[in-house]
Amino acid sequence: MVDQARTTANFRLVVIRGRAYIERIAPAFQTRDLFTIWGILQLLRLYPGRVPDLDLMFDCVDWPVVHPEQYEGENATVLPPLFRYCADNETLDIVFPDWSFWGWPEINIKPWDALQKELNSGNKRVKWMNREPYAYWKGNPDVAATRQELVKCNVSSEHEWNARIYKQDWLKEIKAGYKQSDLASQCTHRYKIYIEGSAWSVSEKYILACDSMTLVVTPKYYDFYSRVLMPMQHYWPVQDDSKCSSIKYAVDWGNSHKQKAELIGKQASNFIQKELSMDYVYDYMFHLLNEYAKLLRFKPTKPPEAVEVCSESLACQAIGNEKKFMKNSMVRSASDAGPCDLPPPFSPEEFKALQHRRKKSMKQIETWEQKASKPVDSKPRELHAFPSPKRFI
């Protein structure tokens, strides 16, 4: 079953007696594989001797590929256990924390532990009530049709959808020294938009951490923590098939219910700061790998093509930001306390109650939007000294 996942995997990881062996199968985009492996090595440093022997395949591409219906019927093969960064309701890929928790050197995004502190400080620069009363998004719209549709929601001479959309030109930004891409300085609007790219986006945690009420355009994919987020508690849902009017309504609602909107934003950033600390990220990794290892029906052995890797060997070969981020995210000492206890899974009743609560909140907002959908003047309001529309994409 493990070997079946080789078809799309980028690397194979084998852990034997606390030592890691990597078999490179296919090149990954940028340094995703390198920093994913680095993160696993830090887990082994944090909990030495506690991670059990295991053998797994890891795919660093965005899109999940394990569709259970392809492994059914008389001629079906066994379903491959394949690790990656996200999945959806139609796939069974095993979801693992993404590489950016240890840094994304290609676009100068620091390791999460340091960036988390910067975002927390950035929140305090502009009080929520003093922030721009619009929805903000900055990113690359070229990676997905849904983002290209979002661009149409930008302010123009014809429409005011309460959105301020900026295109991030990474090639230009790299040449300029990342002066316009500092995440901690982007917490200046009351509302921020999260929208998926080609699949889920690592930007989710940075957006939620801003104290702004996050407007989440209906997502298809989930990462390892996002399914616990609740509408009207951690974010405001935006309809994918009517983005512009849905964004406008969300902002109008928030500006009419400022304290409630501020609370939603604060609850999301509190969740990101507390529940998504690196301690808990490592604990999730530990429990996931531990539960996975329990399912193995064979004794892991070093593959012929695999080589042993350790933190020192990877960091020694790295240069520039890669080396800097590895140094900054290295686990300095083992944990005396050990990982947290794994909580029990939801009971069927608890899970149904959670689903019901989510659906009820979503339906409530849909009803509000429908009642407010009568014709209105769509000409832009006065922008209160906001930059000219020509400054937007």
Automatic annotation (TrEMBL):
Regions of compositional bias (Basic and acidic residues) in chain numbering: 368-384
UniProt cross-references to InterPro entries, sorted A to Z: CAP10, O-Glucosyltr/Glycosyltrsf_90
Signal sequence residues: none
Glycosyl transferase CAP10 domain location: 50-299
Region of interest (Disordered), residue spans: 368-393
PANTHER family hit by this protein: KDEL LYS-ASP-GLU-LEU CONTAINING - RELATED (PTHR12203), OS02G0642700 PROTEIN (PTHR12203:SF106)
Name assigned to this protein: Glycosyl transferase CAP10 domain-containing protein
Organism: Urochloa decumbens
